[in-house]
Amino acid sequence: MLQDPDLILQCRQVTKQVTTGEKTLDILQPIDLRVKPGETVAIIGASGSGKTTLLSLLAGLDTPSQGEIYLKNEPLHKYDEEQRSAIRAKHVGFIFQSFLLINSLTALENVMLPAELAGDEQAQQRAMDMLEKVGLADRAEHFPSQLSGGEQQRVAIARAFISSPDILFADEPTGNLDSKTGETVSKLLFELNQQQGTTLVLVTHDNELAAQCQRQLLMHAGELQETVKAMAEVV
Amino acid sequence: MMSVWATQSWRLFRHELKRGELTIIAIALIIAVASVFSLSGFSAQIKSALIQQSNSFIAADRVLQSSRPVDEKFLAKADEMGLEQAQLLQFSSMVFAGDDMVLGSVKAVSNGYPLRGNLLVAQPDGAGSLQVSVAQVPTSGYAYVGESLLRILELNVGDGFELGNSEFVIAGVIDKEPDASFSVFTSGPRVIIHMDDVAATGIVQPGSRLTYKYLFAGESIEEYSRWAKPQVLETQRFRDIKGQQSPLANALNRAESYLSLASMLGIILAAVAVSVASRRYGQRHQPMVAVYKSIGASSFFIRKLYLLHWGALAGISILVGLLIGYGIQYLGIQFMADVVPDVTLTLSAYPLLVAIFTGVICAVAFAIAPMRQLIATPAISVIRGFAGFERRLTWLERMPPLLAVVVLLWLFSQNLLLTGALILGAAVIVSILLVVGHLLINAGRSVGSQAGQAFHLSMANLKRRAKANQVQLVSFTIAIQLLLLMLVVRNDLIDEWQAQLPDNTPNQFLVNVSQSQVPAVEAFLQQQGLVASDLYPIVRGRLSAINEEQVRRRVSKEQEDASEQGRRGIGRELNLTWHRDIPKENEIVDGTWFDNDNPKAEVSVEQELAKRLQIGVGDTLTFQIGSESVTMPVTSIRTVNWQSMQPNFYMIFSESVLADFPATYIAAIYVPGLQKSEFQDFLQQYPTISIIDVDAIIAQLRTVISQVSLAVEFILILVLIAGALVLIAQVQASMEERERELAILRTLGAKGSLLTNSVLLEFVILGAIAGVLGSLSMEIGVFILQTQVFDMSVSIHWPYWILGTILGAVVVGVLGMASCYRLLKLSSLTLIRRTL
C-alpha cells in the first residue's frame, strides 16, 4: 500500500474501459494523480477527452476498471456503491452543470439536505446562513423552477458547502450560465472555498475559471498531463 | 422526533401534492378504488333488486321441490334462521260440477303463500261485480279457480264444485298467479285451495303423482342455501329464479354478465391508468434519487423514503377513492331510482373490502417494477443522465401487474369465464398491437419522406421514439378499445338483446288445441291478423333407448338438475313434435334438416340435450309412444334460443314418424291489448283450449333489459373518465423528452409554426393509429364476447371503426397539444435553459 497519508486524494494507474457491443473503448489511459488538502485543481480538456469520467471516478460515483483510488485514505476502488455513498456523505460535496436541485423542495430544503442526512440538528439554521452567504436568503421558500439559472447554481453551491466537505467536485459549474452570471457564480465558489479551506476539483471548458485554480491538468484522449498556467491559455 | 428519511419523505410528499405533481397517479388510484367500490356496490344492488323483483315469479327466494315430503330438518333450519316459509302441493285431479268434469291442475297452498309477489284474484265486491285485488290464500272450503274452469264447467263465482271427497265454493277467479308455470305444456284449469283441505279430499294416496314445493324467503337466504344445497337429495331440487331454463332466468344471468363485463372494462382501464401513472412517477423521481445518492444517501434510506412516500400516496388515494366511490354509488342510485324503485343505498362489507383490496393491489403490483427501477437509479446518473439506465423488465417483473388484473377481475366478477375471455382477448390484442404498431410507424416513415416538412418531421419523431411510442400506442389503443367496446356493449349488444323481444313478442300460448279445432284457430288468427307461431302438434312419448341400449340406466344426477322440461323429457315423458321446416330461432349445428321430398323417419335433437345424453348424428333413438315403439336415426343437432317466447322443443321429428299419432296442438300468439276481448270471445267457443298468459314475464324481461342498459350507461361515464386519464398520463409521460427535442429543434432554428404543426401531427397520427388498432381489438373483443359469453351471432361494427379512428386522432391530438402548448410557447432560451 503506497498511499500517502498527507494526500486527500490519490490515484494510481487508474483506467476506465467501456464495452459497447463487441468493441471495448479505453476512455482513460492509466492515470496517476495526487491532490493535497486545500488544493484547487482544474481538469480541462476537449469534449470527449474523458475529464467527466475521471471526475466521477474520483468522487466515487463510479468505479475504475483498474487501478487504485484513495479518498481521505479510503480505498474507493474496493468499495461497493453503499460504502462509497457513506464516504460521499462524510467527505464530499458536489456542484453540477445542470444544478440538479430537487424540484419538489424549496431552496432552503435543498440546501438543508446534506446536513440533514449527516444528522445535523442545526441544519435549518445553517442552511439559512449558507443562503445568506450566497445572497439568496430572501428566496429561501422558492422552488427551483421559480429561480433563474444563476440563482439555482448559487443554491447548489450553498448545498455543496453546508456540510463543510473535505473535498468538493464541480462539473462545469458555469457551463449552463451566461458569462456574467458565470463570473458571479465562480467568484462565490472560490470565496467559499477559501473560507472553508476545502479541496476543490473542477472540470471545465472555461480557461478563465481554470486559471483561478492552483493547478491545471489537461485531459487529452484519456491521458492526463500536468500543465502550467500559460499552456492553459493555448488549449 | 421523526427520522431523517421520514422527514424527507413527508416533505417531498407534501410539496409534490401541493404542486400537483402527484395528481395523475393519485387520480388513477382514486378512480380504480372509486370505480370498483361504486361498481361492485352499485351493480350488486341493481342485481339484487332485479332478482328481488323477479323472485315473485317463483313466489319465493328459493324453492325446494320434491315428490315426497322433505325431511323436517329443512324446515327446522329455516325456522331457526328466521326465514319466511310456505308450502305448496300440486297434483292433477278431476273436478266435477253436476254432470260436467275436467282434469284440474290443483295447487294447495299454506298460509303465507306467496312469499314474493302477489296473488291477484277477482272477487265479487259489494255491488256484485268482480274486482281484482291482492288476495290471501283461500279460506278452508273455498277455492280460487282459473277462468277456463268456469268456462268448461259453466260455473260462476259463488258456485260449488267437487274435488275428491270434498266440496269447494268458488271464492274468486285467478287473475295473476305469481309463480304460474313458465312451461307451456302444463294443462288443465288451475284450482287453488288451502293446504288444510287436502287431507279431506282423500286424493293424496300412496303412489299419487304429487309435487311438494317448500318456499323460503328472507335475509339469511344465502346462508340457508349454502347449508341446504349439499343436503338436497337427487330426487329433490333446490332452485332460485336464475336456476331454471326460463327466459327470465336467462335474462337475469345475462344481465349479470353485462353488468360485470361493463364494470370489468372500467377496472381494466383504471388499472392501465395506474400502471401508466406509476411508470411516470418512477421516471419523474429518478433525478431526485440520483441526487440523494450522490449526496451520500444509502439505498436503504431511499427505500424507506419511497416506501413511506408511496404508502402515504396510496393510503390517501384509497381513502379519497372510497369517499368518492360512495358518492358515485349514491348518485347512481338516485339516477336509477325511477326504474329500480327497490334499490336503496346500503353499505355492505364486500364491495368495501374489494375496493380497498383493489387500491392496495394496484398500488403494490403496479408499483413494484417502477419502484425497483427507481431505487436502482445509480448515483452516476447525476453526471451521465438517465437515459440507458432503464433495464428491460424481466418476465418475472411483468407478472405482478398481470396477476393483479386477473385477481381483481376474478374477485370482482366471480366469473371465471368472463375473466378468462377478457384476459385471453387482451393477450391476443396486445401481441397484435406490438407487431402492427411497429409496422405502421415504420410504414408511415417512408410515406412521410414524400410529404410536407411538418409531416416529415413528425414521422421522424414517431420513428425515432418507436419504442416509447409503442408503449404509448398500446395504452392509447387499450383506452380507445375499451371505450369502443363499452359503446358496442351499450348500443349493439343490448339492442340486439332487446330486439329478441320485439313489440309483437308472443304473449299468449294456446295449449291443448285438438286436431279438429286447428282449422278454426287458424281462421281466427288470420281474420284478426294476429301474429302467431306455427301450430305445433304435440305427442307425448318417452325416450326408451339410445342405440338400442335402454335409456334408464343413463339417467344421472345431472339430468335431475336440469330444467323442468329437460328432466321430464329424460326421466319421464317428453313433448314430441313434428315439423316440416326448421323453426325460427333454431339453427342446425350438425347434420342436415329433413328432406321433405324424400320422407324418412328422422329426428332432430337440441344441442345441449344431445351433449348431456352423449348422442350425435347417426345414433338411433327409440321412443315409446302409447303402446307403440318407434326407432329412427338422429339426422341433425340444433341450437334453440330458449329466450324466444316461442314453443321450443328438444326433439323434432319428421312428419312420417308422428303424423299418425293423435296429437294436440300449441301455438304462441301476440294478442295486442285491444284484441284481447275478441280473443276471449273466440276461446269461449272452445272451452277445452287453454291459454297461458305470459305478459307479466315479458314485462319483467323488458324491465331487466332497460335497467341493465341504464346501469351500463352509467358505468360508461366512469370508463370515459378512466380512459381520458390514461391518455393524459401517457402524454404527460412523454413530456420531458419532448421538451428536450423541442429545445434542440428551436436551437436549430425551426420555426414555431413548424414545431406546432409537427407536434400536432405526431399526436394526431399516433391517435389515429391507436384508433384503428383500438377498433380492430374492439372487434376481436366483441367477437369473443358474442361467441363465448353471450351466444350471439357475430357481427362487424364498421361505424365504430370510423368513430374510433377519428376519436383517437382528435382526442389524442387535442390532449397532446394541450400538454405541449406551454412548451411551444416558451422562448428558445428558456427551453434550452430548462433542459440542457
UniProtKB/TrEMBL annotation, chain A:
Family statement: Belongs to the ABC transporter superfamily. Macrolide exporter (TC 3.A.1.122) family.
Occurrences of domain ABC transporter (ranges): 9-234
GO molecular function: ATP binding; ATP hydrolysis activity; transmembrane transporter activity
Keyword Glycosyltransferase: no
CDD domains xref list: ABC_MJ0796_LolCDE_FtsE
The protein's name: ABC transporter ATP-binding protein
Cellular component GO terms, alphabetical: transmembrane transporter complex
Coiled coil: none
Swiss-Prot/TrEMBL keywords: ATP-binding, Nucleotide-binding, Transport
